[in-house]
Amino acid sequence: ATDTSTSAPGSTLASVVIETDETNGSADDLITTHTGRSFAASQVEELHCDARLRAVIINSAGIPLHLGRARRLATAAQREAVRIRDGGCDFNGCEAPPSWCVIHHVIRWRDGGTTDLENLASLCPQHHGLTHSRGWNMRAAGDQTFEWSTPQRRIIKSQHHGHTH
């Protein structure tokens, strides 16, 4: 689509699909798109000039898991990945099963948060509400784990599959 209210040339929205099991290579390596087209990795630099880039990271089955800011709501595949990873509510000591939980953006979407697994947590309604309460702060702690800071500045670490991290 082109904006006809301006004389500026239009830009292309390009999705760069990256498989999670690929290793980082040199700029001379070939990248194969999801449609099977190959091009030199160095050509990605050319896209930066006139295109808006969106990285879509997929698993080995080709299912998108990391969508950045391209999409606000988690996909069905992302929801399933978070539910499997977390095994229920992430809040330490909570026994709510995955079916009771919502998928929460740790860094809120409106604050620039991404729809990537590292920024998505499984929370039951009680702990989702608590996370949004005044004085509570949730953050990513690395390795897809999370922590809460209470109003009294106590740190509570997340749990996955009933194990504390």
Low-confidence stretches: 20-27
The global form is elongated
Q: Span from first to last CA?
A: 47 Å
Provide the residue-averaged pLDDT.
Answer: 74
Radius of gyration over C-alpha positions, nearest whole angstrom: 19 Å
Strand share of the residues? 25-35%
What about the largest sheet?
Answer: 3 strands, mixed
H/E topology pattern: EEEHEEHEEHEEEEE
Secondary-structure-based class equals alpha+beta
Describe this structure in words.
The protein is of the alpha+beta class and 165 residues long. It contains three helices and twelve strands. The chain has helices spanning 43-50, 76-86, 125-131; strands at residues 12-19, 30-32, 38-40, 51-58, 64-66, 102-105, 120-123, 137-142, 145-149, 155-157, 159-160, 163-164. The chain has a three-stranded mixed sheet with strand order 1-4-5. Strands 8-9-10 form a three-stranded antiparallel sheet, with no helix packed on it. It has a two-stranded antiparallel ribbon with strand order 2-3. Strand 8 and strand 9 form a beta hairpin. The longest helix is centred in the middle third of the chain and has 11 residues, at 76-86. The termini are far apart. Residues 20-27 have low confidence and may be disordered.
What's a concise summary of this model?
16% of the residues lie in helices and 31% in strands. The protein has helices at 43-50, 76-86, 125-131; strands at 12-19, 30-32, 38-40, 51-58, 64-66, 102-105, 120-123, 137-142, 145-149, 155-157, 159-160, 163-164.
